[in-house]
Amino acid sequence: MKPNLGPVTKSARHPFLGKIYRSIATHKKLVVLVLLSVFLFLMFTEKVVTLLVLTAMAIPATFITMYKRIVRLPPALELVSLTSAMATIFYGPITGIIYTVIVNVASEIASGHPDEMTLTYFPSRIVQVLFIHFAYTTGLLTGIVGLGVWGVVAFNAVQQPLFMSLVDVEKRLKAIYFVMLNIPLNIIIFKTIGPPLFALLQMIA
């Protein structure tokens, strides 16, 4: 698969997703500019520190998936879940959704393998953000580890059935592999990085 955000290849089997992807790919500079403008406007109407914090989280979350350029494996090791959870808890669901969409697209581009299947991350990541917001604001879950891990479970519960319904058997096996690694890895990430990052954001957010 080509590492640039180019036209959908002949192997694409999903006309609707392919059409959307081609439209985004054709106007990718405009799309990035619009998303960035909305993001910056939203952040600067709140406070500059918000932008700085989200940018600081977005950079590692974007580039950690660059290992896919060397090893063609699903991005089971990722920081989108952790940083999206933090963005949602401290800055609300709207900011969380905007953040996770932008960082997901950026991480796919950084990994060198964006394609039409990148679009399937949008609904699942949005569900993840909304779940975390609901669980936190209602008091259902208050600890960052519980919020993060169950948010990852919610993400995979939506993402994997959606992804598997659109791909062949080989990619379905990769999706199973993704789940088997993504959830345990995120448990480790949230248990080790989650609490100190949460405490840091409590001081500066």
Report on the structure:
The protein has one domain: Orthogonal Bundle (Arp2/3 complex 21 kDa subunit ARPC3), CATH 1.10.1760. The N terminus is likely disordered. Helix content is 74%, strand content 0%. With 205 residues, it is mostly helical. Helix 2 runs antiparallel to helix 5 and helix 5 packs antiparallel against helix 6.
The gyration radius over C-alpha positions equals 17 Å
Q: If helices are DSSP runs of H or I spanning 4 or more residues, what is the number of helices?
A: 9
Bulk shape: globular
Write down the CATH topology: Arp2/3 complex 21 kDa subunit ARPC3
User: In terms of per-residue confidence, which ranges show pLDDT below 50 for 5 or more consecutive residues?
Assistant: 1-12
The amount of helix comes to: over 70%
Q: Quickly count the domains.
A: 1
What is the overall pLDDT average? 83
What's the level 1 CATH class? Mainly Alpha
Q: Gap between N and C termini, in Å?
A: 40 Å
Order of helices and strands: HHHHHHHHH
As a percent range, the share of strand residues is: under 5%
Level-2 CATH architecture = Orthogonal Bundle
SS-based class: mainly alpha
Strand tally is: 0
| Major sheet summary line | none
What labels would you give this structure?
mainly alpha, 205 residues, Arp2/3 complex 21 kDa subunit ARPC3, disordered N terminus, single chain, globular
Layout of strands and helices, then pairs:
Elements: H1 15-26, H2 28-46, H3 48-63, H4 80-91, H5 93-111, H6 121-137, H7 144-164, H8 169-192, H9 194-204
Helix pairs in contact: 2-5, 3-4, 3-5, 4-5, 4-6, 4-7, 5-6, 6-7, 7-8
